[in-house]
């Protein structure tokens, strides 16, 4: 059985990277994804964990957070609550539009542009730094559903399977995994 492909998924609106630890990431004309590492020149690229909290726990853990993607629709939602957030402000590498990132199952492959492929590993767990950036914003990106379960809306994380250039305007093709789909969990 072949993987399901959803063509015409979405579009890359913005790409961002930063070689130093800062909360926000400056927008770029393009980024290069490197297989097994992440975004070339980005502080979070690497085979093993790079996020400071995870390095402190165990620096040998595999880096399941090589690429951070956020849907631009989130910025529309928080704007309705009075928060102005721009692409790159929450530290993501790729901002998308027209694709329900949070609804994709674990293991989904996103084909970005002509070559790059990112496999989704899970949800970003938004941290208190978001409130330092914009007071009260954490409540907008971390909530609870009607069952009282935590809902994380601050984007998804993935690993680079195939490298390549990614630029604003690039199409995103979605390839769903085989078998029973597992909802995204925090990574």
Walk me through the structure:
- By secondary structure, this protein is mainly β.
- It is built from four helices and 13 strands.
- Strands 1-6-5-11-8-7-13 form a seven-stranded mixed barrel.
- A hairpin with a 5-residue loop joins strand 9 and strand 10 (150-152).
- The longest helix is centred in the middle third of the chain and has 9 residues, at 72-80.
- The model has no long low-confidence stretch (mean pLDDT 92).
Features of the shown structure:
7-stranded mixed β-barrel, 3-stranded antiparallel β-sheet, mainly beta, 187 residues
Write the topology of this structure.
Blueprint: E1 4-16, E2 27-28, E3 31-34, E4 38-39, H1 52-57, E5 67-71, H2 72-80, E6 94-97, E7 109-112, E8 116-123, H3 129-133, H4 137-141, E9 142-144, E10 150-152, E11 156-162, E12 164-166, E13 171-176
Parallel strand pairs: 5-6
Antiparallel strand pairs: 1-2, 1-6, 1-13, 3-4, 3-12, 5-11, 7-8, 7-13, 8-11, 9-10
- Biggest sheet overview: 7 strands, mixed, barrel
Classify the secondary structure makeup into a structural class: mainly beta
Stretches with pLDDT under 50, minimum 5 residues: none
The proportion of residues in beta strands is 25-35%
Q: How would you sum up this structure in a few lines?
A:
The protein has helices at about 50-55, 70-80, 130-135, 135-140; strands at about 5-15, 25-30, 30-35, 40, 65-70, 95, 110, 115-125, 140-145, 150, 155-160, 165, 170-175. By secondary structure, the protein is mainly β.
